[in-house]
Design goal:
Beta-Lactamase, five-stranded antiparallel beta sheet, disordered N terminus
Length: 319
């Protein structure tokens, strides 16, 4: 080897050792032939230790079947292959030591798999280039979490943490359309707090807010995970009871009514007790849209109010 060639070779080897990406060369039996300093630093294993060791024996966390399938085309078709952190968070389970993204436990990685073509045109070795993309992945995850939080805030009532009126009505439309397709029974419960204005006038709006929060909390504790509850306005609430016929809806409403009546709200040394009135409408074939369904539940609620409050009423044809 001439002096100039030797110098270039030395530069090349120095570059491969110092670049801030992982570089691994594997033969056709997946034995490790090259292992640069990036890989040494993050794995804690020197090149001398891993050289000619089978990759899957040294790093059992790498799914062999998946990796062999991924690299088979590289060997046979002599074409590159790629995998990103969104497809698979990492190939090598390296700890993350970056101070900025210290909340991430492991290094997120993008991987390029390239064929190393010999002078006779065969591919007996492949090269893995491992990029540390933890910063990118972490920023993306934080952005997605922030967007999810904003989306939740946009559909959540701040005081009660129930769905706000706009989002809840969207769910009501969706449930009505689902009924039109499947004819699966569902019930709508509308209710409000009896004599709520008297609570505000007597004890103040802070006390009124405490009462609303108590009712919302009791509602969330009483309903199922599949039910959809919302604050419809002021002291009025709505619950969509999914896949629920009228007898079951009546049972739910009575249980909720009794649970609220048993609660006590303390405000500035005073104990406040309230009741609720409820109206129920089961979705029926003659209901034209979600507004008509809602109107029937409101009519049943008004019936409870006229009947003396603190009771449950269901919509019927003769109302």
């Amino acid at each position: 080897m001439e002096n100039s060639d030797f110098t270039e070779f030395h530069w090349l080897m120095d570059m491969l050792q110092t670049i801030d990406v992982g570089l691994v060369v594997l033969d056709s039996e997946y034995r490790i032939m090259t292992w640069n300093s990036f890989m040494e630093n993050h794995s804690g294993l020197t090149a001398a230790v891993v050289r000619e060791k089978v990759l899957f024996e040294t790093f059992p966390e790498i799914p062999r079947e998946w990796f062999e399938h991924k690299t088979r085309a590289v060997f046979m078709l002599k074409s590159r292959s790629f995998t990103t952190w969104e497809q698979r968070p990492y190939l090598f389970r390296f700890k993350n030591y970056r101070p900025i993204t210290g909340t991430e436990e492991f290094m997120y990685q993008n991987i390029t798999i390239s064929p190393l073509i010999s002078t006779n045109g065969d591919v007996n070795h492949i090269c893995l280039i491992i990029y540390d993309v933890t910063d990118i992945a972490s920023n993306r995850k934080q952005l997605e979490a922030a967007n999810a939080k904003l989306e939740k805030l946009s559909r959540t009532d701040r005081l009660t943490q129930l769905n706000n009126r706009g989002f809840w009505e969207e769910q009501l439309v969706r449930e009505f359309m689902r009924y039109k397709r499947s004819e699966s029974k569902s019930a709508l419960v509308m209710f409000d707090i009896d004599h709520f204005k008297r609570v505000n006038d007597t004890y103040g709006h802070q006390a009124g807010d405490k009462v609303i929060v108590m009712v919302a909390k009791t509602l969330m504790e009483t309903m199922r995970g599949t039910d959809v509850a919302g604050r419809y306005g002021g002291e009025e609430f709505g619950v969509i009871l999914v896949d629920t016929p009228m007898p079951n809806a009546l049972t739910f409403a009575e249980r909720l009514r009794e649970a609220v009546a048993a609660q006590v709200v303390e405000h500035e040394g005073t104990e406040i007790k309230v009741t609720i009135s409820l109206g129920i409408s089961e979705v029926e074939p003659d209901i034209s849209d979600h507004k008509a369904w809602l109107e029937r539940a409101d009519i049943a609620l008004y019936k409870s109010k006229e009947g003396g409050r603190n009771r449950v009423s269901s919509w019927s044809e003769d109302q």
